[in-house]
Write a structure and sequence with these properties.
The protein has helices at residues 7-16, 28-41, 51-57, 59-73, 87-95, 110-124, 160-167, 193-202, 218-226, 239-247, 257-273, 280-303, and strands at residues 20-24, 45-50, 77-84, 100-103, 130-135, 140-142, 145-147, 171-174, 208-210, 250-255. It has 309 residues and is an alpha/beta fold. The protein has an eight-stranded parallel beta barrel with strand order 1-2-3-4-5-8-9-10, surrounded by ten helices. Strands 6-7 form a two-stranded antiparallel sheet. Helix 3 crosses helix 4 (59-73). The protein is globular and about 60 Å long. The model has no long low-confidence stretch (mean pLDDT 96). The structure holds glyceraldehyde-3-phosphate, 1,3-dihydroxyacetonephosphate and zinc ion. Zinc ion (ZN) binds at residues 83, 142, 180, 211-212, 254.
C-alpha cells in the first residue's frame, strides 16, 4: 500500500469516535518502534516530521525510512509535515512526497493566516495532499521558537466557520490549554472542553487536531530521574482527558515528547546498568522497544485506534 493522505483516516476516526496518533519521527529506531506497534495493533498511522527533524536527519533519509516502513507494514500511513511555518516549506514537503502538511500561520493575523493557508491548500489539493491549519496559539517550544504562556491564546470558536470556509482546509488544530514540551501545567491540568464542544458544534463532521498532547508518564519521568536525569516539575495532559477528546471531534492527536522520554529513559537506564557497553545497538535496541511499548499503550488505551484498519 502506498503512503496515503489523512482524509479518509480522519473521517473514519470522526465517525468511529477515536483518534489517529500522529507521532514525530527523527531517526530509524523511532520509526521502527512506532511502526511495529501499529502493525501489531492494526492501527492507522501518521508519521510526522518537523522542520527541525528535516534539518537533523535530511528529508531524503526520513522519506526513505518512512517508505521502507510503509512497504514492511502494509498499513495506511500518512507522511505529514508538522508545523510548516511558511508556504515555501509546505511546497517543498509536498514536492518531496509528503502526503499531508500543516501550515502553521497562527502567529499571523486572522486575515494573513487565511491568506497563507488558502495558498497552501491551492497547491496541495490538486496533488492529493491534505492540509491542516491552526487557529489559536499553543505555549511551548517548536523548532526553537518559544511561545510564552502570556503569548499563547485559546482558539476563538466564533472564527472557525469562516476560517474553514475561506481556506478549504481539511483539519484544524485548536488551542484549548495543551502546550508543547514536558512542562505543560504549573497547577492542576485543565483543558477547555467547552471550546472544543463549541468548535465541534460549529463544524459538524470536521476533524479537529490536538497538539501538545503528551501525557509525560510518571514511569518515564521516574526512570530518567533515577538514572542521572533532571525533569523536576514535568507534567503532561492526563490520559483520561485525551480519551475524552478522542471521543469528541478530535481525530488526530500529536505526540512527540512522550516518545522522546520513552527513548531517553531506556537509554539512560541501559547505560547506567551497563557502564562498560559502548555499541550503540546495545542501547538503541531497548530504546526502540520502549517506544514500541509506549505506542501500543497509546493506540489501545488513549487513542482507541487499534483494529481500525
Ligand atoms: O511541536 C513540536 C514537535 O514536538 C517538534 O519538535 O521542532 O523540536 O522537532 P521539534
Ligand atoms: P508534545 O510536546 O506534547 O508531544 O506535542 C507534540 C506536538 O504537538 C507536535 O506537533
Ligand atoms: Zn505541535
Amino acid at each position: 500500500m502506498p503512503l496515503v493522505n489523512t482524509k479518509e483516516m480522519l473521517m473514519k476516526a470522526y465517525a468511529g469516535g477515536y483518534a489517529v496518533g500522529a507521532f514525530n519521527v527523527n531517526n530509524m529506531e523511532m520509526i521502527q518502534g512506532i511502526v511495529s506497534a501499529a502493525i501489531e495493533e492494526r492501527a492507522p498511522l501518521i508519521l510526522q516530521v518537523s522542520n527541525g527533524a528535516r534539518k537533523y536527519a535530511n528529508p531524503i533519509y526520513l522519506k526513505a525510512l518512512v517508505e521502507s516502513a510503509v512497504k514492511e507494514s502494509n498499513l495506511p500511513i500518512a507522511l505529514h509535515l508538522d508545523h510548516g511555518d511558511t508556504y515555501e516549506l509546505c511546497v517543498s514537503a509536498i514536492d518531496d512526497g509528503f502526503t499531508s502538511v500543516m501550515i502553521d500561520a497562527s502567529h499571523h493575523s486572522f486575515e494573513e493566516n487565511i491568506r497563507i493557508t488558502r495558498k497552501v491548500v491551492e497547491y496541495a489539493h490538486p496533488r492529493n495532499v491534505t492540509v491542516e491549519a491552526e487557529l489559536g496559539r499553543l505555549a511551548g517550544i517548536e523548532d526553537g521558537i518559544y511561545v510564552s504562556e502570556n503569548d499563547s491564546a485559546f482558539t476563538d470558536p466564533s472564527q472557525v466557520e469562516e476560517f474553514v470556509e475561506r481556506t478549504g482546509v481539511d483539519s484544524l488544530a485548536i488551542a484549548i490549554g495543551t502546550s508543547h514540551g514536558v512542562y505543560k501545567f504549573k497547577g492542576e491540568p485543565k483543558l477547555r472542553f467547552d471550546i472544543l464542544e463549541e468548535v465541534a458544534r460549529r463544524l459538524p463532521n470536521f476533524p479537529i487536531v490536538l497538539h501538545g498532547a503528551s501525557s509525560v508518564l510518571s514511569e518515564y519521568v521516574d526512570i530518567i530521574q533515577n538514572n542521572g536525569g533532571d525533569l523536576v516539575g514535568a507534567k503532561g495532559v492526563p490520559e483520561e482527558m485525551l480519551r475524552k477528546a478522542a471521543k469528541m471531534a478530535v481525530c488526530k492527536i500529536n505526540i512527540d515528547s512522550d516518545l522522546r522520554m520513552a527513548f531517553t529513559a531506556a537509554i539512560r537506564k541501559y547505560l547506567m546498568e551497563n557502564p562498560s557497553h559502548f555499541d550503540p545497538r546495545q542501547y538503541l535496541a531497548p530504546a526502540r522497544e520502549s517506544v514500541k511499548q509506549l505506542v501500543k499503550h497509546k493506540i489501545r488505551n488513549v487513542l482507541g485506534c487499534n483494529n481500525k484498519i
